[in-house]
Each structure stands twice: as C-alpha cells, then as structure tokens.
C-alpha cells in the first residue's frame, strides 16, 4: 500500500514546501474629485480658462478585512485670461481623496501595493468669480498574502509500479518590501530661459531605467522628470523641464541571486518652491518623496508525478491538485498615440498626457491592450492669443499570450512626446509604455499515494508482442497500454527518443 504522509507512508513520498506570496487582490479603482475655486478679490474677473493641469500624490494605504483604503490628494493648477484683457493669472488648489474598495478577498494581513495617477483634468467657469476644477484619479492595487504549499511526490516506487515525472520551473513572488526615499534639488534656470515670476503647475514623473536583485537588496536606478508651467516676469507662460537621475536600494529579508525584481514607484509627497533673490537667477527648491515598492520573484523547480500504472496487478492511485500562479513572462511594449486637433497655432507652449487604466481583449493567442488617453494643450493662436485644446484618443499594443495564461497590465507615459503646429492644425505624438506580467493559473495533478495489489507473480503472460505503430506514439503510452516499461521497449527496438515513429515495427517485451 502507498499512502500520503498523514497515513504513515513517509518513506515513499518526497515533501517539498514552497513559501510564496499569493496575489489575492487586483483592482483598478477610480474616483472623480471636484472643487469650487474662488477667484481672489485682487484678481480680475475670469474671461476664459486656457489651461488645467493636475498631479496626484498618495499619502497612505491600508488593507482591512473586506476592503482597502487609499488616501491622498490631487494638486491642480489652472491659467485663465481675464475679461479685461490683461496678462493671464494662475490659480491652484488641492483636492483630497479617499478611495475605498470593498472586496471579500481583501484581508488586514495582506501586503498592499498601490500607485495612483490622474487620468484626466479640466476646469470650467461657473461665473466670472467661481471656477469648478475636476480631476479623475485612478489607483492600481495589488494585495499579496503569505502562503505555503506542500507538494508531495512519489519516490522509490516498487518495481511493479511505473511512474512518469515532470519538472516545472515556477517563478513566484517570494517577498514584498518597501522604502520611502526623499529627493531634494535646487533647480536653476539655464542661460536664455525667461525669468520666473510664479509656477502655475508642476509634475514629477519617476521612471526606472535599471533594476536588479543582489544579495538581500533590490537595487535600482532611474530618472525623475520634473516639468513646470510657469509665468515669466513679463506675464507670458513658459515650460521648464529637467531630468534628475537617482540611484537607490531597498533591503529585503531574503537573499537572492540574479532573480527577477518587480518594482513600483509611487509619489507620496512633492513641493516645488520658487526662490527669487536680487541679482541672482530664480531657483526652484524641489523636494519629492517616493515610495519604492519591491517584489522579489524567485524561481523554484517543482517535480510532479503526473502518471503511474502497474506492470503487474492493480493500482488504485490517489491524486492531489497543485495550483500555483506562476510568472511566465514579463514584457514591455511601446504603443504610440497619434492625434490632431484642427486649431491653427503659432506655437504650442505646453502639452500634458494623461492615461487611463488599460483594458484587454484576447485575439489569436495575443492580448490586445488599449489605454484611453487625453492630451491637454496650451497654445498661442495665429493672433497671439492664448488658447486651449484637448485631444482624446487611445494607445494600444499587442502582447504575446501563451495558452492558459492571463495578462496583468499597466501603462505609463514614454519619454518621447510632443504637440506641435502643422499645416492642418496641431499634431500630437506620444509614446506609451505597456507593462505586462503574463501568469499561468493552470491546475496540475501529482500522485501522492494509492493501493498497489501486485497479483500473482507466477501468472502466465506473453513474452513479446509484435506490432506496427499506426501513428507516432510516445513510449510511455505504449508501455502503459501493454503494462511494461519504457526502458524495455526502447531497449528491444533501439529507440533513443521518447517516441515510436509511425510505421515502425515494434517488439514490445511484456
């Protein structure tokens, strides 16, 4: 008799325990935030709004039993042209948000990865002294639960029992770690850049360019792009852009060697203060806090006994199911947003891309990813007046998807993008990066026990069966059919592969 360890047959079973993080919660939650903004008494009446921009920060995240709560705020800025035709004025506001997602899969014990961004921003006049600002925030959430799975595989099988084993390489999340990092920088204007009077709106966008696991550290490098729309001392709007390299690490509990690293950076705080001193160029005193969320992905080799039969007697197998959400592939593909708006422009002063969460459709073994996109444009028309335009479109790409795999995707703006005047209006071109993790949730079975009754060893049996292979067939299937072994068939016929080709005359020792 063969039994699982719980029944006292430890000598016949090999135990393998795998500790990993099981993804139990994956959501994209969106919320629209609005706020009424009052024009200050010292400002002239608003004639029309020509620019609205917004950037999100995440202040906190909390996993609870049955729900998840993420808090933060949206920093929004706008530019308007007064009714009296004087120089444009800038206004700003802060819109706090609290996003709650109810889901029975959420637990207080799970480790939560979260990242928030603005997917659209606009403003409209209520009257000349009151403006309604609106921003749409989306939060991408993933919850991990520490779990362990014991896999039991038959070893040292009796001579009368033939077993077929297979080895699977499983890449699983093993550990989740976090680190808060603060970057500070004094940013100066370059020679020839117009002097700053005030900042209308600014954005900070972190991007990872290199990452790896080494020992107990997640090491990564990247670039923080800072972009600001500001008013010059002459009252004209201008754009200021700087790229700031950074290098950081996050300590983990485990030790890793060339394993995979999944990294998510989220802005949790930012301040950009304009410093102006007499006889000195303007400076922007920048401080940005990033939450670095690291997931170590480690490979494990798992051996399963997929099939078994008895060459003599009867075998009643006992099977158990193995379910592991394994990472098959990680891909980054580029999609391009191409659009236009029929507005005649002398110059484009600023354009900002906002992306929504991607959707997907499966077609012919591929996942087609599509992300809605909005581009806010501030431009100067042919008469020299400030104007605004919005381009709404979508970016897409295709990701190779294996059979039985599922795709978890996110999207970020690429490095290259612009809006520029053309003969037909304003052309928009932006690169968009789609990041996709392809996972397999296939259920596999493995032999963990059973009853073997070997029968009468002296019973009469044929010695050899002669037959033609009517089709290409695996030696395992032939051996199982005639209750012999693969090695016996291979040896009798000089077969070095695991298959008998169609038309082959076979000697099958039984």
Total strands: the figure is: 24
Inertia-based shape = elongated
The secondary-structure class comes to mainly beta
Largest sheet report: 4 strands, antiparallel
How much beta, percentage-wise?
Answer: over 45%
Unreliable parts:
1-11
N-to-C span: 24 Å
Average per-residue pLDDT, rounded, comes to 90
Order of helices and strands: EEEEEEEEEEEEEEEEEEEEEEHHEE
| SS summary, helix count | 2
Indicate the radius of gyration in whole angstroms. Answer: 32 Å
What portion of residues is helical?
Answer: under 10%
Can you walk me through this structure?
It is a single chain. The chain has 510 residues and is mainly beta. Helix content is 3%, strand content 74%. The chain has two helices and 24 strands. The protein has helices at residues 475-482, 486-493, and strands at 13-38, 46-64, 67-82, 89-102, 111-127, 130-154, 161-188, 196-232, 237-257, 260-275, 283-310, 314-323, 326-341, 345-355, 359-363, 366-381, 386-400, 405-422, 425-440, 443-453, 464-468, 473-474, 499-500, 505-509. Strands 14, 15, 16 and 17 form a four-stranded antiparallel β-sheet that branches. Strands 1-6-5 form a three-stranded antiparallel β-sheet, with no helix packed on it. It has a three-stranded antiparallel β-sheet with strand order 2-3-4, with no helix packed on it. Helix 1 (475-482) crosses helix 2. The two termini are 24 Å apart.
């Amino acid at each position: 008799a063969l039994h699982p360890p719980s029944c006292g047959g430890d000598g016949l079973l090999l135990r393998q325990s795998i500790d990993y993080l099981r993804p139990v919660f994956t959501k994209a939650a969106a919320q629209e935030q609005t706020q009424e903004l009052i024009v200050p008494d010292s400002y002239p009446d608003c004639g029309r709004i020509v620019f609205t921009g917004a950037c999100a920060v995440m202040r906190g995240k909390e996993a609870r039993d049955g729900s998840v709560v993420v808090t933060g705020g949206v920093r929004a800025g706008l530019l308007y042209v007064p009714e009296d035709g004087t120089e444009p004025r800038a206004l700003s506001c802060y819109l706090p948000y609290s996003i709650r997602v109810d889901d029975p899969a959420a637990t207080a014990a799970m480790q939560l990865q979260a990242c928030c961004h603005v997917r659209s921003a606009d403003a409209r006049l209520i009257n000349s002294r009151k403006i309604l600002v609106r921003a749409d925030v989306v939060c991408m959430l993933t919850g991990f639960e520490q779990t362990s799975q014991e896999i039991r595989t038959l070893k040292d099988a009796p001579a009368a029992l033939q077993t077929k084993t297979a080895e699977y390489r499983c890449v699983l999340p093993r550990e989740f770690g976090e680190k808060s990092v603060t970057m500070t920088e004094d940013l100066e204007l370059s020679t020839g850049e117009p002097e700053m009077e005030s900042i209308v709106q600014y954005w900070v966008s972190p991007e990872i360019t290199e990452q790896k696991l080494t020992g107990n550290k997640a090491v990564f490098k990247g670039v923080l792009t800072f972009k600001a729309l500001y008013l010059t001392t002459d009252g004209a709007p201008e754009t200021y852009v700087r790229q700031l390299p950074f290098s950081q690490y996050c300590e983990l509990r485990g030790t890793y060697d060339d394993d995979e690293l999944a990294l998510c950076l989220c802005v949790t705080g930012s301040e950009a203060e304009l410093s102006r001193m007499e006889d000195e160029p303007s400076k922007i005193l920048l401080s940005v806090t990033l939450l670095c969320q690291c997931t170590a992905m480690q490979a494990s080799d798992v051996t399963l006994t997929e099939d078994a039969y008895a060459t003599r007697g009867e075998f009643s197998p006992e099977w158990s199911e193995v379910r592991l959400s394994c990472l098959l592939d990680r891909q980054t593909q580029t999609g391009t947003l191409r659009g236009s708006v029929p507005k005649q422009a002398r110059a484009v002063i600023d354009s900002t891309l906002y992306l929504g969460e991607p959707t997907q459709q499966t077609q012919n073994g591929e996942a087609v990813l599509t992300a809605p996109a909005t581009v806010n444009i501030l431009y100067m028309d042919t008469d020299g007046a400030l104007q605004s335009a919005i381009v709404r479109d979508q970016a897409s790409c295709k990701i190779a998807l294996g059979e039985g795999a599922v795709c978890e995707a996110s999207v970020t703006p690429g490095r290259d993008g612009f809006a520029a005047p053309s003969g037909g209006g304003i052309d928009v071109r932006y690169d968009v990066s789609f990041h996709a993790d392809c996972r397999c949730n296939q259920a596999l079975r493995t032999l963990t026990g059973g009853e073997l009754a070997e029968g009468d060893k002296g019973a009469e049996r044929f010695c050899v069966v002669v037959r033609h292979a009517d089709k290409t067939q695996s030696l395992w299937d032939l051996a199982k059919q005639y209750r012999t072994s693969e090695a016996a068939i291979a040896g009798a016929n000089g077969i070095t592969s695991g298959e008998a080709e169609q038309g082959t005359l076979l000697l099958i020792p039984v």
